[in-house]
Each structure stands twice: as structure tokens, then as C-alpha cells.
Automatic annotation (TrEMBL):
Annotated segments matching region Disordered: 157-180
Coiled-coil spans in chain: none
Parts of the chain that traverse the membrane: 27-46, 67-85
Keyword GTP-binding: no
Bridge-like lipid transfer protein family member 1 N-terminal domain mapped to chain residues: 1-320
Organism: Anguilla anguilla
Biological processes, Gene Ontology terms: synaptic vesicle endocytosis
Signal peptide, first to last residue: none
GO cellular component labels: presynapse
Keywords tagged on the record: Membrane, Transmembrane, Transmembrane helix
Keyword presence, Membrane: yes
Pfam families: BLTP1_N (PF20413)
Entry-linked InterPro entries: BLTP1 (IPR033616), BLTP1_N (IPR047104)
This protein's name: Bridge-like lipid transfer protein family member 1 N-terminal domain-containing protein
Amino acid sequence: MDTNTNDSAFPSYVDLDKFLVKHDSNFVWLLMATILSCGWIIYLTYYNSRNIGLILTLIINRLYKNGYIHIGSFSFSVLSGKVMFRDVYYINEDMSIRIQDGFLIFRWWKVYNPKQKQHDPKAETRLYVTVNGFEFHVYNRTDLYSRLQETFGLEPTLTGHKKGEEPDETLNSVSITTESPDPASSWRSLIPVIKVNISTGRLAFGNHYLPQTLCVHFDDAFLTYTTKPPSSHLDQFMHIVKGSVENVRVMLVPSPRYLGLQNDEPPRLMGEGFVVMQSNDVDIYYYMDEPGLVTEDVENGEAEGCSEARNSRICPPAGGWTSSAAKAPISTTAPGPIGRGTVCGSSSCRLTSSP
């Protein structure tokens, strides 16, 4: 009896073939194909991008050891040149970058002209990036604190800088490599202009050891990146970022986990904290030279083509930024982005590094 029950529960191949012939096998195969197609479409729609993001996260973190990179989902389309991502963040001991979602479009169908000028700001945009929910938080400066510990002879407690590492002593063994003068060999000839749109961004500077954290909120940012010739013939090129930011608000927000005493309290709080600056529209212009390696002959003024360097001081790499809000300039009081810089308090400042 048990044998007959098992035989009836698991039909043989012959019985299955007779059943399909008797009940119109074409309809059965169509039904199975429909069910499998629906399952495959559901997988591609909801789970494929997440699985690709998980695989990319595992591979990147296996190869990259200076932080943690997470990709929630990742998908791409070859025909439209579109790459979409979601829930992306990068965390290390000094800062964190988080992106809620976004996409980038590479217009590969645009005709590539190798003879196109690299420093043409009016060139066509081949790369377009859109980001939603951008957050950038700086909460530590491990490399600087490590160098201070080494300078004052303290026991190293941070991992940002190895003890005994002297970058100046290794400069003599560095091979001089500069960008090729051929325009076709540079990535800037392929992508001369990059446009970036950011919707809802936040910049934060501080940690729980400080009573206040400086936060910069904005709703929309429309930025354009390009390059132009450097201010000095010794440099390679100059980075240019210009654009406009809407609904900007700079605030001092109390740090959530700060346990110390707060001596200077802000005069008033509006919402999350004390508002330092607020504007509906801010125009920004940022520039920075890409430094080039200066040979010993040029530095000493002994090269044949250095008559300009003999008569005047060699111009170091320059960098600075200009911002204006509601047709009124905003003063900048930040050090130069390249090495040791000067501090200025005007609407347009030129920050240069010390020789």
C-alpha cells in the first residue's frame, strides 16, 4: 500500500508526458513561462540592483583599506549611458560622505574631437551628475594631530601618520611626471565640463568634543566644473568650480553628545541652532591650481627659459574662492586650500601657499 502511495505521489516521466498530452501541453508550458517571466521581472525590478550593490561593497572594501564604502543599490543602462545608485556612504577616521540617491549620465554618443581645447568652458557637457540628500561631515583631523604628537615627542595614539615618516627627505627620489602636452592624451579633452546638481545638501564641521557644530544647509546647488590655464607656467592647469546655491543657511548647532561646560551660549536659537548667515541665493566661484613639480634648475633660476623667474619671484600655486549673496559680497576668512595660506576678509581673495 505504501509503495502505491509513493508511486502516485511522484509520477514517472511517462505518466507526466501522458498528462501533458492529455491536458494540452502548450497551455501548461505557456503558464510556466509566464510565471517564470513574472518572477524574473520582479527580481530585476526590486532585487538585482541591491545584489549588485552588495557585491560591489564587498569587492571595494576588500581592496580599499583606508575606510568603509557602502553601496545600497547600483544599476546601469548602456544605451542611455546612465548609472544609478542609492544609499551610498564613505566613512573613515576623519570624515563621512553620505548620498541618499543619485545618478550620472555619460553621453557617450557625443562626437569626440581630440583637437578640442581642454580649457574651453563653453564646451559641451559630456558628464552630468545629479545627487539627492548629500551630507558631508568632518569630525576629525587625524593626520594633523599625528604630526603634532610627533613634533612634541608624544606617544603616537593615532593612525593617520606613521612615526618617522619624512616626506621632505623622499622628494629627491620622486620621478618627475607631468601631464602630457598632447591634448588627446588627457581626460580633460574627453570630459572638458562636468555639471553637478545637488538637491538638499548639508555640510557639518565638528564632533562631540566641541560644544557647537558648524552646519551649512542648502536646498539646491547647481555647479559646473571645468579647467583653464594655470596662473603660473610651472603648474599644470587650474580647477574651476562655479555655480549657485539656493536657500543657504549657516548655523551653530549644539553637539548632541557634548558633556562639557558651555561658557559662551549663543544669544538666540532659531530652530536647530544659532543662525550665522542666511540667504536665498548664493553665487560661488572656486579656483585652485594643480601644482607642478619645480626642478632644481628652475628654482635656482639657472634654466635657459627662466628669465622671468630671475627678474621676479616664482608664482606659487594659487587658490581661493569668491561668494556673493543677494548682490552683496560675503567675506571669506579661511586659510588657503594649498598648504600654508594667507587669510583675507574681502569678497574676492587670492590665497597662495608659502614658498
